[in-house]
Amino acid sequence: MRAHEAGALHGDLGNRGPAWLRTPEDVNALVPQLWPRTVTRAADGSLQVGGVSVTDLAADHGTPAYFLDEDDLRARCRDFAAAFAGADVYYAGKSFLCKAVVRVVEEEGLFLDVCSGGELAVALAAGFPPERLGFHGNNKSVSELRRALEAGVGRIIVDSFHEIDRLSELSRELGKRPGVLVRVTVGVEAHTHEFIATAHEDQKFGFSLAGGAAFAACARILDEDVLDLRGLHSHIGSQIFDTSGFEVAARRIVELQAQIRDARGVELPELDLGGGFGIAYTTQDDPSTPGDLAKRINKIVESECELASLRVPHLSIEPGRAIVGPAVFTLYQVGTVKDVDGIRTYVSVDGGMSDNIRTALYDASYSATLANRSSGAEPMLARVVGKHCESGDIVVKDEFLPSDVQPGDLVAVPGTGAYCRSMASNYNHVPRPPVVAVRDGAARVIVRRETEDDLLALDVG
Ligand SMILES: Cc1ncc(COP(=O)(O)O)c(C=O)c1O
Ligand SMILES: N[C@@H](CCCC[NH3+])C(=O)O
């Protein structure tokens, strides 16, 4: 539910907030599902991650900054790999990609999904085995496809007839026979924000199942026999909690597998059901564990295959957010606190929509906590905003912070590992924050802070 829909007034505080948001009994308490697993409040009240206090991290690395709990990230990779044992788990690099994360993904035995020449370049620069890469995109350029073929990318997920033609021509030219999946639009209305739903009919991704394009794409690939058609792919959207969407997708896509078998005598050996598994951004979100997801997804694929008398294909999934999202928090410093009489208290921090566009773009909800100390002050409903020239520059729409929050305090926002640094911008020429990995009492910068010199270096006029 969105704050403006809820329209509830918190009588005790006279502030406007969503109906679900309750005054916390202890404003210093950390809600476990929101935080990376090594985050705790130390005896002095400050947060610590990987055994390092955020006050030290802020002193050493500045704010705003993204802090990655490396143990948490690795544990999430392992949880998915163990739950989906026997399947290929592709980490969706669009959620956040840098060489250090590529190495973690490789060390933890995952595959990697990239969706642009740039992401491919990061993966290759980090030495990721190309055969474990999947290459996505609805408009891959000829040069991106050429690079993917030359590098030996394991799977190319084709998304249009133009791409099939382009890739076939390049494959002939280079003497390659790449493994491909056909991305199918299964016609599912995923329960998520409209901008991040990807399997309803009216949108740019994939080949329509209902309209027959998906079957025609497979038929064309099989007829031409230049590309090695390994299977079908479906991705229904992102930040999804209700697994019924995956079930409908699996059912429809298995029906298409059966149709291809009946018409062409070919049982496609692979099936990729994409990513999109939701994470907790607030106390309202209750995500499934990888184990639960695996159980439900395997069950539906197996039962649908049995119904269609198909062998169960080799399964892949592509989680991004669910792996990196909860492993990171953003640390900001408070610059001003403004009580707009009787309406709202605005806590301004030193970042904003340039390091987290999701609130403005998707009306996303986040949580926050005072990070450099605990406080005995009464909870106060606040809006955490950034420093940009835009009134929609909101980081956390509604959150209870201690009422003595003041300039110089640190505020931490959890759940910012996915689609925050990767979608960051230089709006207002604000340099993008660093990403710092913390583990076993030590912090290391894995993406350095951008500088004004970096920005000016591009300005060659
Ligand atoms: C094809 C594909 N796979 C995987 C993902 C990863 O999604 P998420 O980060 O929600 O798991 C996306 C993004 O929505 C996607 O478009
Ligand atoms: N960028 C989106 C998700 C889209 C993922 C890619 N298809 C988000 O922040 O939630």
From TrEMBL:
<feature type="binding site">
    <location>
        <position position="358"/>
    </location>
    <ligand>
        <name>substrate</name>
    </ligand>
</feature>
<keyword id="KW-0210">Decarboxylase</keyword>
<feature type="domain" description="Orn/DAP/Arg decarboxylase 2 C-terminal">
    <location>
        <begin position="326"/>
        <end position="417"/>
    </location>
</feature>
<feature type="binding site">
    <location>
        <position position="276"/>
    </location>
    <ligand>
        <name>pyridoxal 5'-phosphate</name>
    </ligand>
</feature>
<feature type="binding site">
    <location>
        <position position="390"/>
    </location>
    <ligand>
        <name>substrate</name>
    </ligand>
</feature>
<feature type="domain" description="Orn/DAP/Arg decarboxylase 2 N-terminal">
    <location>
        <begin position="71"/>
        <end position="324"/>
    </location>
</feature>
<keyword id="KW-0457">Lysine biosynthesis</keyword>
<dbReference type="InterPro" id="IPR009006">
    <property type="entry name" value="Ala_racemase/Decarboxylase_C"/>
</dbReference>
<dbReference type="InterPro" id="IPR002986">
    <property type="entry name" value="DAP_deCOOHase_LysA"/>
</dbReference>
<feature type="binding site">
    <location>
        <position position="321"/>
    </location>
    <ligand>
        <name>substrate</name>
    </ligand>
</feature>
<feature type="modified residue" description="N6-(pyridoxal phosphate)lysine">
    <location>
        <position position="94"/>
    </location>
</feature>
<feature type="binding site">
    <location>
        <position position="419"/>
    </location>
    <ligand>
        <name>substrate</name>
    </ligand>
</feature>
<dbReference type="InterPro" id="IPR022644">
    <property type="entry name" value="De-COase2_N"/>
</dbReference>
<feature type="binding site">
    <location>
        <position position="419"/>
    </location>
    <ligand>
        <name>pyridoxal 5'-phosphate</name>
    </ligand>
</feature>
<dbReference type="Pfam" id="PF02784">
    <property type="entry name" value="Orn_Arg_deC_N"/>
</dbReference>
<dbReference type="GO" id="GO:0009089">
    <property type="term" value="P:lysine biosynthetic process via diaminopimelate"/>
</dbReference>
<comment type="pathway">
    <text>Amino-acid biosynthesis; L-lysine biosynthesis via DAP pathway; L-lysine from DL-2,6-diaminopimelate: step 1/1.</text>
</comment>
<dbReference type="GO" id="GO:0008836">
    <property type="term" value="F:diaminopimelate decarboxylase activity"/>
</dbReference>
<dbReference type="Pfam" id="PF00278">
    <property type="entry name" value="Orn_DAP_Arg_deC"/>
</dbReference>
<keyword id="KW-0663">Pyridoxal phosphate</keyword>
<dbReference type="InterPro" id="IPR022657">
    <property type="entry name" value="De-COase2_CS"/>
</dbReference>
<dbReference type="GO" id="GO:0030170">
    <property type="term" value="F:pyridoxal phosphate binding"/>
</dbReference>
<keyword id="KW-0456">Lyase</keyword>
<feature type="binding site">
    <location>
        <position position="362"/>
    </location>
    <ligand>
        <name>substrate</name>
    </ligand>
</feature>
<keyword id="KW-0028">Amino-acid biosynthesis</keyword>
<dbReference type="InterPro" id="IPR022653">
    <property type="entry name" value="De-COase2_pyr-phos_BS"/>
</dbReference>
<comment type="similarity">
    <text>Belongs to the Orn/Lys/Arg decarboxylase class-II family. LysA subfamily.</text>
</comment>
<dbReference type="InterPro" id="IPR029066">
    <property type="entry name" value="PLP-binding_barrel"/>
</dbReference>
<feature type="active site" description="Proton donor">
    <location>
        <position position="389"/>
    </location>
</feature>
<protein>
    <recommendedName>
        <fullName>Diaminopimelate decarboxylase</fullName>
        <ecNumber>4.1.1.20</ecNumber>
    </recommendedName>
</protein>
<dbReference type="InterPro" id="IPR022643">
    <property type="entry name" value="De-COase2_C"/>
</dbReference>
<comment type="subunit">
    <text>Homodimer.</text>
</comment>
<dbReference type="InterPro" id="IPR000183">
    <property type="entry name" value="Orn/DAP/Arg_de-COase"/>
</dbReference>
<feature type="binding site">
    <location>
        <begin position="318"/>
        <end position="321"/>
    </location>
    <ligand>
        <name>pyridoxal 5'-phosphate</name>
    </ligand>
</feature>
<comment type="function">
    <text>Specifically catalyzes the decarboxylation of meso-diaminopimelate (meso-DAP) to L-lysine.</text>
</comment>
